[in-house]
Write a structure and sequence with these properties.
- There is one protein chain.
- The protein is an alpha/beta fold.
- The chain has 9 helices and 7 strands, in the order βαβαβαβααβααβααβ.
- α1 links the parallel β1 and β2.
- α4 runs parallel beside α7 and α5 runs parallel beside α7.
């Protein structure tokens, strides 16, 4: 799909999958709002790279857990680009914790992860939907996780929050149809800064998978754009995990 003339919001757009999505959208002609909470330098770097490849982008700060900030951010995008056509709910957080130690899963951790991973995606969808309808319809892609399918992951609360993102995808697909389609990409391991300097752990995970690799962010970005473009899909999940859940 040619995204020329379309406006797209990408939360967590400065790093990892969000950055790859933002750059690919810009190459396809979209105007891209790169939304960040803390990674200002990275978001502004992504916007510079978008400009360097002849595209149009802006970096906007918004904590997706804060509904007021989200509404102001979405209004700014609409005013700057003239519309909001698509949304990629990529912003998410986790904590690395021993999975079996339930005492480490505090109420504060539950609240933090759900406020960003689940409520944040809802806030953005709710704020963007009126603008999408005004533009004649649009699409939303949420970034889920195989942790939400298997119940395993970096920590228990993260796995449950991603399962909730999957449920949110289906519920929003019902609530926003027929004008707005809502789908979900479900990655397994991705080669991002999340691994830090632990190359041994990354290598071990890759070698345990049927395809013998973890996904580069660009693989996930291609799927995101395919779901944004496909007008016959809503409430669906595309798993990209190199065979993890085979």
């Amino acid at each position: 799909m040619d995204f020329s003339g379309k406006s797209v919001i990408v939360t967590g757009g400065g790093t990892g999958v969000g950055r790859a999505v933002s750059l690919l959208l810009a190459r396809k002609g979209a105007s891209v709002a790169v939304v960040y909470s803390k990674s200002r330098e990275e978001a502004e770097g992504t916007v510079r790279d978008i400009a360097g490849q002849g595209g149009r982008g802006i970096a906007l700060k918004a904590d997706v857990a804060d509904d007021g900030q989200v509404r102001r951010m979405v209004d700014t995008v609409a005013e700057t680009f003239g519309s909001v056509d698509f949304l990629v709910n990529n912003a998410g957080i986790t904590r690395k914790l021993p999975f079996e130690d339930l005492e480490l899963i505090t109420d504060e951790l539950w609240s933090l992860l759900f406020s960003v991973n689940v409520q944040g995606a809802f806030h953005c969808a709710r704020a963007a939907a009126p603008h999408m309808r005004k533009a004649g319809g649009g699409g939303i892609v949420n970034i889920g996780s195989t942790a939400g399918l298997t119940g395993r992951g970096s920590c228990l609360a993260y796995a449950v929050s991603k399962s909730a993102v999957h449920g949110l995808t289906k519920s929003l697909a019902h609530a926003l149809c027929p004008e707005i389609r809502v789908n979900c990409v479900v990655p397994g391991g991705i080669d991002t800064r999340w691994w830090g300097d632990d190359e041994a752990a990354k290598k071990a995970v890759a070698e345990s998978l049927p395809l013998g690799r973890i996904a580069p962010p660009e693989d996930i970005a291609e799927l995101v754009l395919a779901l944004l473009a496909n007008r016959s899909m809503t409430g669906k999940f595309v798993v990209a995990d190199n065979g993890q859940t085979l």
